[in-house]
Design brief:
Layout (H helix, E strand, L loop, with lengths): L10 H29 L3 E4 L10 E6 L3 H9 L6 E3 L4 H6 L8 E5 L6 H10 L1
Antiparallel strand pairs: 1-2, 2-4, 3-4
């Protein structure tokens, strides 16, 4: 586990160090998923395929109904969401049916590698 060093003394420095630890963890977990999604011909990654240049939220356009995929993933204990997420015009601009929307996966500092592995093996 990575920790920040004792030179971090002010609250602002601690806040930045913690943010950097969270971000590094999210990127480490996110990059393999992005690479995996790029190999699939039944999904289209929306946004950059580089974890360093994106937020830890992944949206994919699905061939079929994203809500159906979200429900099937829930059966494997993978939590995700589907829909247009109030971005109707953006969906249209990206060539995604806004009435169906996309599948969205979110990463946070407590997301574990095993959860990402589970997602990639159950799809």
């Amino acid at each position: 586990m990575t920790r920040f060093n004792n030179d971090v003394t002010t609250p602002a420095e601690r806040r930045h160090a913690i943010h950097d630890l969270f971000r590094a963890h999210e990127q480490k977990l996110l990059q393999p998923l992005l690479e995996y999604l790029e190999t699939r011909n039944d999904v289209r990654l929306l946004g950059p395929a580089d974890a360093k240049t994106r937020a830890p939220t992944v949206a994919v356009a699905i061939k079929g109904d994203p809500e159906d995929i979200a429900n099937r993933l829930a059966n494997h204990k993978v939590m995700c969401w589907s829909g247009n997420f109030y971005a109707y015009r953006l969906c249209e601009a990206l060539g995604v049916d806004p009435d169906l929307g996309a599948l969205r996966l979110s990463f946070v500092h407590y997301t574990q590698k095993e959860e990402v592995d589970q997602l990639m093996t159950c799809t």
